[in-house]
Write a structure and sequence with these properties.
Structural class of chain A: alpha+beta
Oligomer: heterodimer
Number of strands of chain A: 5
Number of helices of chain B: 15
Order of helices and strands of chain B: EEEHHHHHEEHHHHHHEEEHHEEHH
Distance between the termini of chain B: 65 Å
Structural class of chain B: alpha+beta
Radius of gyration of chain B: 22 Å
């Protein structure tokens, strides 16, 4: 059994609900769908027990029904474990992972600013990357958001 | 309650140590830094959103412009992810050439850094020397790709220009010349007392902190963490090349200097290996316009550390989502940890030591008269001799240095 399969087994042994959710894409690439309520525990387990000590980034996507969040964790052996979850557009999102990965703060602020997801327990601080004057409720990476310059003249007049 | 002995000094967004915008709020007790707040985002250009509006191939050239110095890093990371999604097998010669340009880019980036580091500590001779030597590799890049920065060398499925025998032999000579110069810098970093006094113990970061924070690139390796994506998660032909991951134990700016100089020597070795093992055959394969549904990740060891790209395709000719995480994003946050307890005067070099990004200019100029009519074009070589002539008329003769460098190339 190779390292990718061992990782899948280690995760599903601890979290039975992930049984059907582990996808081994190729060498060093493992994807797992994780329910929002279990996310924090799975990330904690990956970091503390399985040795995934780097968080490469958090990718946010607009899935229509909610905001998809992918936590890309990396191991020194080169495997990237990508944990994806779905958070509501209006409502409580995942807990902050800054106690586990201190530099995750900017990744979390980025998905807050650009996609309007809520991160629970993130201490107050400067926003990133948008300016302080950015209007409320405008989330540029949502699919229905278009930059002003792309509007046709008709749309602007209307 | 605020401590009356603490003075808060804003540095930036137009920053003295970095010709790019970022903002630091330093809390000082006397000369000592007690706390640092970082504010970023001044350079946010909405590129990820823009990518969703353009075909995959156009995005390649857009993403290349994220950064003027590690442009090839971004385009390689993105192209590799898209090729994985499309199930393309890039011809071996294309992979070799792609890695070749990647390593030439590392040479120019590290030599640039060495000059900037020299400048930040008032050692401008080092800046003059290393930037002069950097011109050797800039010429190689311009000759092979057609440009000094933003090479436009990658395409989805391979690379866009083949290399000639003549270019190969020029490159070999250039590596010998650069190696001789770099050995001199290695000796300088190891023995020059002013350099050691100024840099050792500055911007210190322990191995534990590097691992806890997830710091990347030469900054991490200077604290004894032997991580390099070229070894751990290799793309292209990196797993076939023989090279060492250079580390240092001191965890300070001197260590970061030693690591980068050591990496330069490894890179010359890799360039020679690529040139001697270059396979024959095509340099690219044709890529489809529409990319099948799926998502892929590529990690690339850019000169500054790990560059991370995520691409999701939805079966159309435009990506559903592109996400980029450049190495400076991590390392600039680590700077605030390094600076705490340090001195204000060490702040510029501590920041510069992570090697944040700078920009560079193009090589071709169009001459136009006042009414805009095209008078002619000047090549890079013509512009260079024009510059040398211009300064000679003012009594500064830099053609001597130019000749010395040419001699060095000849001898090598």
């Amino acid at each position: 059994m190779n390292a990718e399969h061992q990782l899948g087994v280690a995760l599903t042994d601890k979290f039975k609900s992930l049984k059907e959710n582990v996808i081994i894409q190729r060498a060093r690439r493992v994807w797992v769908n994780v329910p929002l309520e279990e996310l924090h525990a799975v990330i904690g387990h990956a970091k503390e027990t399985l040795g995934y000590d780097m968080l490469c980034t958090i990718t946010g996507t607009d899935e229509g029904t909610g905001i998809g969040l992918i936590y890309h964790l990396a191991h020194p052996n080169g495997i990237v474990l990508s944990l994806s979850t779905l958070a509501p557009k209006d409502g409580p999102g995942p807990k902050t992972v800054t106690p586990l990965y201190p530099l995750a703060e900017l990744y979390e602020r980025e998905v807050i600013d650009l996609l309007g997801v809520r991160i629970e327990g993130l201490p107050p601080g400067n926003r990133y990357p948008l300016p302080d004057t950015w209007p409320e409720g405008q989330y540029p990476l949502r699919k229905d958001w278009k930059p002003a310059g792309n509007q046709t003249q008709k749309e602007q007049e209307g | 309650m605020t401590d009356p002995e603490i003075v808060r000094v804003p540095l930036g967004p137009q920053h003295p140590a970095l010709k790019e915008p970022s903002s630091f709020l330093l809390s000082l007790r006397g000369e000592q830094i007690t706390d640092v707040g970082v504010r970023l985002g001044y350079n946010h250009r909405g590129m990820e959103k823009a990518c969703e509006d353009r075909p995959f191939l156009n995005d390649l050239y857009l993403l290349e412009r994220i950064c003027g110095i590690c442009s090839h890093s971004h385009s390689t990371a993105y192209a590799t992810a898209v090729e994985e999604l499309a199930g393309l097998t890039v011809p071996r010669r294309g992979l070799f050439l792609r890695v070749l340009v990647g390593e030439l880019e590392r040479i120019h980036s590290h030599l640039l850094w060495l000059g900037v580091a020299g400048h930040e500590i008032g050692f401008d001779t080092l800046l003059m020397y290393s930037w002069r030597d950097r011109e050797i590799v800039m010429d190689l890049l311009a000759d092979l790709t057609g440009n000094r920065v933003n090479y436009g060398y990658n395409t989805i499925g391979g690379v866009r220009r083949d290399i000639t025998q003549e270019q190969c032999s020029t490159m070999r000579k250039a590596m010998d010349a650069l190696e001789e110069r770099t050995k001199y810098y290695a000796e300088l970093a190891a023995t020059e007392i002013t350099l050691a006094k100024r840099l050792s113990g500055v911007g210190k970061m322990t191995k534990e902190d590097v691992l806890r924070l997830g710091v990347t690139g030469p900054t991490a390796r200077a604290s004894g963490v032997a991580r390099d994506v070229r070894k751990d998660d290799p793309i292209g032909i990196y797993d076939e090349l023989d090279f060492e991951v250079i580390t240092a134990e001191s965890g300070d700016v001197l260590g970061r200097t030693i690591v980068r100089v050591g990496e330069l020597l490894q890179t010359y070795k890799m360039v020679r290996q690529i040139l001697s093992n270059l396979p024959d055959g095509p340099i690219a394969t044709k890529a489809p316009r529409k990319i099948p549904q799926g998502q892929a990740i590529c990690r690339y060891e850019a000169p500054r550390g790990e560059d991370f790209h995520f691409v999701r395709a939805n079966g159309t000719e435009k990506p559903e989502r592109v996400k980029v995480r450049a190495p400076t994003m991590i390392n600039v946050q680590a700077v605030s940890f390094m600076m705490r307890g340090g001195y204000l005067a060490d702040m510029p070099i501590t920041l510069a030591a992570i090697d944040p990004c700078f920009s560079c200019t193009d090589r071709l100029t169009e001459l136009r008269s006042d009414d805009g009519a095209l008078l002619g074009k000047k090549t890079w070589a013509e512009l260079r001799s024009h510059g040398i002539e211009h300064y000679r008329k003012q009594g500064v003769d830099i053609s001597v240095v130019s000749k010395q460098l040419a001699c060095k190339m000849e001898r090598a």
